[in-house]
Structure formats: C-alpha cells, structure tokens
Amino acid sequence: MIGRLRGLLLETTEEEALIECAGVGYIVRCGVRTIAALPEIGAEVIVHIDSQTREDGTRLYGFLNKDERKAFEALQSVQGVGPKAALAVLDVLTPQQLAQAVAHEDKTAVARASGVGPKLAQRIVIELKGKVLTNAEFGPVIHAPAGVVVKTTVNGEAVAGLMGLGVAEQNARLAVETAVAQLGADAELPAVIRAALKALGK
What we know:
Blueprint: E1 4-12, E2 16-21, E3 24-29, H1 32-37, E4 44-54, E5 57-63, H2 66-75, H3 83-92, H4 95-104, H5 107-110, H6 118-127, H7 154-164, H8 169-183, H9 189-200
Parallel strand pairs: 3-5
Antiparallel strand pairs: 1-2, 1-4, 2-3, 4-5
Subcellular location: Cytoplasm
InterPro entries: DNA_helicase_Holl-junc_RuvA_I, Hlx-hairpin-Hlx_DNA-bd_motif, NA-bd_OB-fold, RuvA, RuvA_2-like, RuvA_C, RuvA_C_sf
GO biological process, one term: DNA recombination
C-alpha cells in the first residue's frame, strides 16, 4: 500500500494530479482544495495517499496532510459515503471544521458539500460522533452548549481553509474578500478558495 508520494508534479486537472516518482508517473485523485494548493508544474510535491484496490484496479487519493487522509477514511466508514462524497465534504470543510460540525451536530455545514443531501449529512454527523478526526496539533474540538448549532459561512470557511494551508489570517481574509468581490456573494466555497489562492499568487 502507498501511504505517501514525493516527486515532481507533471500535470493537473480539476480532479487529478500526475506525480512522477523515481521515473514512474502516478495518477492521484484529489479534491479541489488540494489541487488548488499544489505548487507549479515541475516543482516537487509531497502528498499523503489513501490507496484503494478494487476490481477495476488501484486508485490513489491524495491529501495535503495526514489529518485530511484520516478524515477521508473516517467519512467512508459512514454508510452511503464513497470516495467522491468524502472528497466533496473535505472540499468545503477542513478536518477540524468537520470535527466541529460533528461535535455540534451541524448537518447544514456538511450538506454544503456537492452531492451530499440533508439525510446523508445527518448520517455523517451521527455516525462520526466520538471518532477522532484530527491530530492534537489542530487543537481540541470546542463543544457548544446543548441545543446550540454553530453555523458556518463561506467566507469563514475559506479563510480557515487558507490558514490551514499556511496563509496568515490577515492575508487570508484580504484574499477571500477579493475573491468574493470578483465572484459575488453567492459563490461556492471551492470557487472562492481557488480565486483567493490566485489572488495570493499561489
């Protein structure tokens, strides 16, 4: 099983990256957040891999860090959640945000993911309850008082996503504001993150 790849980024599409390691090109399926954060073509890249072997072959799924891979694996333990839906959830929620949504039973935040309806979102927050989704360095999950649901916004999620990529909070907020001004207030999170990263020159 492949757990990590380090090599040259040869090309990317909206869903995949081709990474050359020791002369072998690996096709790695990635979410929007991961694709947007990859370096320029020809640069060295490191991705954490979830390897899945099925009847039609082996597929590699790539992530920016171990926590994303752990959350991806945890999501697929939920009935009805496959790789596509798991990637969609991680496009709109970082692992820490997902942990918060599960702790607060905030199915609305999870349902922002493309292809994830209210029923599946409800199942996700229920079945992931009590599971560890992130490592200690991401900080503890803050539990809201009983009956309180913490709502998220696209701007806040985008800022948090950029900060998770190492962008300073002030720069992240300015980039997100620029992106939203260009795309409009109704823009979806993946589009906002891509535009914000472009504004940052990444």
